[in-house]
């Protein structure tokens, strides 16, 4: 079976899970490509080439990143295309995956599997009470076991619907409704830029929504922030932050050792995955 996985990952958590899913499905004998959503020009044309479509993303307050809303809105109605959904979260999201499933079902997709994966905290200028003390080896072993179960369900076309129940839906709504109101207040000038900025353009290169530019020899942000924290955690001078009162002390560099943030933006083809 030819499978497409579309993923958006701010700082590497979702990408890491997507990569493990891709490798697992390849071992089961499937042809699998992994695409970053920010690099997909025409999602409808791309989807036509595949038998099964998966989508992965991080959860923010039981809500989804704006870039996920955008691609869902662009999707044209499908005639019974099967799919699976997975999301990454800090603690719990209630219906984090089921929320998108509902939207895709309305488009004609048949969603067979939903999964949630708890991953380390990447919000490094606030939520300081949740410190990252990640044991990378233990983290990967735990996630590998979880992904293996998810991959088996996909391979056997077995229904596995994490978070699709009334209780999870209520938990999701309790978080999502206030977060959506709270989130809107961040869009205008969300990123605070300190004078320590050296105009290295790292944030410009990394941002998935072109939120930064340079004007009059000064970095400015363009009111497009989707709160992914990619720029904040990879600014070499720790000059970027969202929290008004806190700067970044210890950036989150990814869920695995020697993680390369540029990987989240690259297409990982079936052949490349097999060779690595």
CATH evolutionary superfamily of the largest domain: Flavodoxin domain
Major sheet details: 6 strands, parallel
Principal-axes geometry comes out as globular
Indicate the percent of residues in helices: 25-40%
CATH class term of the largest domain: Alpha Beta
Sequence-ordered SSE layout with sheet pairings:
Elements: E1 2-7, H1 13-27, E2 31-36, H2 43-47, E3 52-58, H3 66-74, E4 82-89, H4 98-106, E5 110-118, H5 136-155, E6 160-161, H6 166-184, E7 192-193, H7 202-206, E8 212-215, E9 218-221, H8 230-234, E10 240-241, H9 270-275
Parallel strand pairs: 1-2, 1-3, 3-4, 4-5, 5-6
Antiparallel strand pairs: 7-10, 8-9
Which keywords apply here?
single chain; alpha/beta; Rossmann fold; 6-stranded parallel beta sheet; 9 helices
Quick gist of this model?
This protein has 276 residues and is α/β, with parallel strands linked by helices. The protein has nine helices and ten strands.
Task: Report on this structure.
The structure is a single chain. The chain is an alpha/beta fold and 276 residues long. It has two domains: 191 residues, 3-Layer(aba) Sandwich (Rossmann fold); 50 residues, Alpha-Beta Plaits, CATH 3.30.70.20. The radius of gyration is 18 Å and the shape is globular. The chain starts with a strand and ends with a helix.
